[in-house]
Write a structure and sequence with these properties.
alpha/beta; Alpha-Beta Plaits; 2 domains; four-stranded antiparallel sheet; 11 helices; 37% helix; 29% strand
Amino acid sequence: MITVTNLNKTFKTPLRKEGYFATLKELISREFIYKKAVDNINFTLQKGEIVGYIGRNGAGKSTTIKMLSGILQPTSGTVMVNGLNPAKQRMQNAKQMGVVFGQKTQLWWDVPLIESFKLLKEIYQIESKVYEKNIEQFTAMLGLEELLNKPVRQMSLGQRVKSDIAAALLHNPSILFLDEPTIGVDALSKKALYDFILRINKEREVTILLTTHDLKDMEKLCSRIMIIDEGKLMYDGSLQDMIQKYGTTRMLSVEFESTVKDFNIPKAKLTSSEGNRKTYVFNRLDTTPSSLIDYISKQHSIIDLQVIEPEVEEVLRNMYSEALLS
């Protein structure tokens, strides 16, 4: 579906110096600053995958998306999307993909939403039956009934993002690029977007590449994640594997049959004690939950327990720390 091989993108910007003589010198010969935004990246996306593409600001996420969509041309390396070269076959590539940039809209600001949809029907030359079917389905799934005759400028951010995603899918693309789609969106609208994206992916096998700073997006939607930092691909795999590899800290929450005094456990630290429940933190490289439970159960009666995995934010911090030290 999508194959990226040895992909590089370097931006060249003029070096600006202050002073009269520096300005004169620039007229004769200019100096430039070279910034490598994407550094020798390789990956393949299969049909129907939902892949999270995450990283810090300036890591190279949006630059990659722009090369996949044909907006930018690679400095070197190759990109193939369904057998097409996006930079050389931009029009053909546009017909097979949908793109949503969270801070930008493809909808016309001052006209009712339905008029934007009609314009997109003409731009993409969508057959009337396909268009009508998609409008009916997307309107019902995303709750757009009351928005169809409303100008985009009068919509909330959540309403506008839902409308943008519907617009991106009107022409039945096989690939959907979502660049920070939920940034600033309220929790209720996010839930509707999650449900819609998962359903479209399942029913139509749309391949989705999602860039996001909201790690809840990744947890809710993605079967696979790729992490980019300073233009380089740091990780490519499942969320669970990433947590296992980099999330060394775990918590064990234990509820006892009756109130017990605080006590320590070898290779674990007590972090909270409320009523009959105590919580311990431990390093999975030093001990196992079963060893801790065995130790506790020999001393006190347990009625409930839970092993709590580390937060994704903590795992990413550990990954970045390792990258800085290596």
